[in-house]
Design a protein that fits this description.
The complex is a heterodimer of chains A (170) and B (99).
Chain A: H1 5-33, H2 42-79, H3 84-88, H4 92-108, H5 111-126, H6 136-166
Chain B: H1 10-29, H2 44-65, H3 73-90, H4 93-96
Classes of the chains: A mainly alpha (170), B mainly alpha (99).
Chain lengths: 170, 99
């Protein structure tokens, strides 16, 4: 049982950073959903918001690391001569995993860091004020932003796993 | 919060709109293969680096101009999510392979 350097990078990209990102979304959305001044004391709001801001910036960091390692480290191995991409194009029954699966994943995934960074910046700007009743539309828009980022990450993750199942980067 | 001055919506609007513009740019650049600044990565490097740079530039630029402004939230949300939706559609391979 042994992993090559490339398999370790692929695991870091998809399982470690991508996995942490997917896990973090539910915590961030839950935190935003329940962030209401009428439900907690001032001190509670401050603690929750601090946790939310730190958590969202950490998520944004994971998202940027995941897409940067995917695009600049793993993708060149995928497209190199005789690599996984070439293996997929050897048969018409598997070429779609590259022309559809990898093409979509490679672009869609980049939406996640942008959307999570924007969400972190907005929460960091309003801080405790975000819990006020009249900031509810902002909280809802943030939840929508994170939901889209989650869908983009999940779709990219599933496609990445399926492409790897057909032809792994080794 | 009573007695505190309310924070302006401008810097938040800048982040929302910048994310929308970046997603739209990802979609618009997906079919563009002519620009290949890093041969080891291929056109994907430009297709992703340019939207990331656009995101930072639009975010910081709008945040600077809207530091103390309070633009209406609704049009900002509508524009942001419309651009994200267009970006999602344009990054879908059966769509961008048409171009």
């Amino acid at each position: 049982m042994r992993l090559t350097d490339r398999e370790i990078w692929a695991a870091l990209h998809g399982i470690v950073f991508g996995g942490l990102l997917l896990l973090g979304f539910s915590a961030a959305v839950g935190g935003l959903w329940s962030l209401r001044r009428e439900h907690m004391a001032d001190e509670g709001v401050t603690i929750r918001v601090r946790r939310l801001v730190n958590g969202l910036w950490a998520l944004a960091g994971f998202a940027w690391i995941a897409v940067i390692t995917g695009t600049w480290i793993i993708y060149p191995w995928y497209t190199q001569e005789g690599g996984a991409q070439a293996a997929l194009h050897r048969s018409p029954s598997t070429s779609g995993w590259d022309t559809f699966g990898m093409e979509w994943k490679a672009h869609l995934a980049w939406m996640a860091p942008v959307l999570v960074t924007a969400a972190a910046a907005v929460v960091g700007h309003f801080r405790d004020e975000l819990a006020e009743a009249d900031r509810r539309p902002v909280r809802r828009a943030l939840i929508a932003l994170l939901a889209i980022a989650f869908v983009a990450t999940a779709a990219a993750g599933v496609l990445g796993a399926l492409v790897t199942k057909q032809a792994a980067v080794r | 919060m009573s007695g505190d001055r309310r924070k302006p919506f401008g810097p938040a609007a800048a982040a929302f709109l910048a994310s929308g513009v970046a997603c739209l740019a990802l979609g618009l650049l997906a079919p563009v293969t002519a620009f290949d600044p890093m041969p080891t990565v291929g056109p994907l490097s430009a297709q992703t680096m340019i939207p990331a740079a656009i995101f930072l530039a639009v975010w910081k630029g709008l945040a600077f101009f809207w530091k103390e402004r309070d633009p209406a939230a609704r049009p900002v949300f509508i524009a942001t999510f419309a651009m994200i939706a267009c970006g999602l559609v344009l990054t879908f391979p059966p769509v961008f392979h048409l171009f």
